[in-house]
Amino acid sequence: MKTLVKSEFIYDVEPELLDESVTDAQYLEQSRRRAEAKLIKMKLIHKLYNSTQELTQNESTYLKQWVSDIKVSKERNLLNLRDSMLPKRGSSKLTLSALDAQSLYALNSISRVNIDTERHGAYALSDLVLELSHFLDEEVVNKVETEIYSERMRQEWGLSKDFKAVESRNKEIGLVLNELEELAWRSAGQLSEKDVAGIKSMISVKRGKDYFDQQFFQNDMESFSKFVTDANNYDSRIELVERWIVRKEDEIKVRV
Prior knowledge:
Elements: H1 24-49, H2 57-72, H3 101-108, H4 117-120, H5 125-133, H6 138-157, H7 171-188, H8 193-203, H9 211-231, H10 237-254
Helix pairs in contact: 1-5, 2-6, 9-10
């Protein structure tokens, strides 16, 4: 289920993932429905922002119902704003074979995407929508919905015009914090001096027992230290160290 989460940072984890009463199947179905709704909402926001594009009749109707649901519905609150306008009958049952030529061309225009209706036609369209939703900035929809709900609260409670239901931090700050967390995670995975000493002790077994091997032993240890310093900058550092050990063992066998 982790693949359905926007990121692995703790403040992004969905509450339903921590709710034992929600099964994986229920969470997946709810995620599909939310992804469908978010895709529609993002299209409407994009069209409204781009004054050169007009809404269709169906889009105008959807927009009115969306705003009305947030402003009027008694069931709507800050905790479930994102569930406004979810498909009532569950996620779409269509498959990728239902994609028209224009949509298929647009998807295959994305780098490293190659959808073949003959090979992938049986896949659920809702799963494709769910994957695409990860590329959409969820904060855009959140800000629109919270602003609509803020307007509702201002009217109902007679609050000042500058009142906002949610004060969100600057997006750039969030991006910096995310980057710092990633750097901390990567740094924590690096091999320490103690780790290097332990590996050296392991690969030193049966080394330097004779005069001939003693001539190479010190150089091998220094070479390993330098290699670890460089390899520590990569996430695959363990694999790289393992390859170094295998290559060194093969090298020792052919020394004459």
